[in-house]
From TrEMBL:
It is a multi-pass membrane protein. Keywords: Endoplasmic reticulum, Membrane, Nucleus, Transmembrane, Transmembrane helix. Belongs to the TMEM43 family. It is found in: Endomembrane system; Endoplasmic reticulum membrane; Nucleus envelope. GO terms for cellular component: endoplasmic reticulum membrane; nuclear inner membrane. This is TMM43 protein. It comes from the Eukaryota. It holds the Pfam family TMEM43.
Amino acid sequence: LQQFSDTGSRKEHVKITSESKPGFLERLSETSGGMLMGLVTFLLSFYLLFTNEGRALRTARSLDEGLSLVIALDSIHSVSQQNEGRLVHLAGALSTSKPLFDPSYGLSIQAVKLKRNVEMYQWVEYEETTEYEENGEIKKETKYSYNTEWKSEVVNSRNFDREIGHKNPSAMAVESFTAVSPNVQVGSFVLSKGLVDKIDDFKQLSLSNLEDPHADVTRGGDYFYHSENPRRPEVGDLRVSFFYAGLSGDDPHLGSADKVTVIARQRGDQLVPYHTKSGEVLQILYPGDLSVEEVFQKEHASNTMKTWALRAAGWLAMFVGISLMTRIFYTLVDWFPVVRDLVNIGLKAFAFCVASSLSLLTISIGWLFYRPVWALLIGLLSVVPIVVAKSRVPPKKQQ
């Protein structure tokens, strides 16, 4: 059964659907499917936690190895054969052989990357759902609202609940793209593709010094509009903005070329990846003029942050997996509100303690081959959540 009600506005409507309340066997079947998904999530968490520790320790060792081997270059304007194949550190201004162009809009800039970002004025659907029980049925009330916004991706209005009056074009007349300079240098050294990929600090390009490129294009602020009236755009209108990364020449409006610091292997006049004995790759680029110590401090900090983020993700995956696998106990008693709530709290506490213990145990096993003493300490720490949980259980009364 479906009931529709309109608020009187073309931009908003409400749909109510009804379905019978699922029986015990149906809920048990759904829980069984959730248990299988929980098992997969549970097993994946072990893989994530274990491999993350190995990755973190290999990266840390590679960084320490790199710090002990790196050579700071005296000059970036001459290539010394003595440093062939060695890990080198240098800092200097970016340079490119040719400016990047967008002939469609009469725009050029001396930079490593130039991004054209195209947005279209489109309908966007939002939905807000609430569920409630009425007369033994589960009712779902969904409120759909529509708004017009600038979007850089085409919004498929065919998926809307009500497309009539909210139809979007199926494609953009102008495409977004990113141009990358084929030859990027710091002094006499050519950067590898991997290093160029790290130059991604995009800034919006001011269009105040440019004229309107075509009769049907109007400049407004830092946008080119394909619209009859940019102040009151219609669905299907376009606006185009530009971003650049890695200014590689002195510009009267943007200033001096950007400086970068690079640590990589010297191969001729090229800077390429350096493979450490630990099996990791060192190919580092940071904006600004940094010392060797500052670069490696940043890399260690980044490695630590990534390690803890993946540990948290692994623990959460394990917690969710255990919760899904034990959900069947909640389903068996969900007819009794008080018992159901107590079981729910107990299952959550159980999942929390077990996930914490198993996560710490898995991390300790990951450290076993690298730092045995730390592995033993973390292994002992993994017992703490279980001991705490056990101490919370009241002792049996003596007969």
